[in-house]
């Protein structure tokens, strides 16, 4: 039994040729791995992210243009309503004697409905812009997360082969066996 544990202990203490060897300091290796993964993510992800942001920017600009066109349509409707208002005012002067209060009420209703329509269109434009901005932000976050995860998995899969995996497991078993032998 002692020969088996000795063989694991020797696997954990392979002689290093030059500067090659196993670094058992978990904190140092995690920092190195993290910095490598972040470097790869930044290098490969910045082009994709800028393309996504450019595409999203164009969509938002198109939405803003569409909203501005709606706004211009509302202004045209307002001008038509003002023309109708002028017409109603002229008719009001002609029929002031017979139905001043009815005409005045119609005028106020027309003004109120026009302003309400304009406010609704303005609110719709603002809601559309806010919705598109939130949607763009969420899509960018989701795509960045997916790409970062894919890049990290690709990096891990390309760096970890079966031989290295088995050697790492064997070395760790040897270290654990040595620690058990010291505690016994």
Automatic annotation (TrEMBL):
Pfam families: ATP-synt_B. GO terms for molecular function: proton-transporting ATP synthase activity, rotational mechanism. InterPro entries: ATP_synth_b/b'su_bac/chlpt. It is a single-pass membrane protein. Its main location: membrane. Residues 64-98 form a coiled coil. GO terms for cellular component: chloroplast thylakoid membrane; proton-transporting ATP synthase complex. In plastids the F-type ATPase is also known as CF(1)CF(0). HAMAP family: ATP_synth_b_bprime. Component of the F(0) channel, it forms part of the peripheral stalk, linking F(1) to F(0). Belongs to the ATPase B chain family. This is ATP synthase subunit b, chloroplastic.
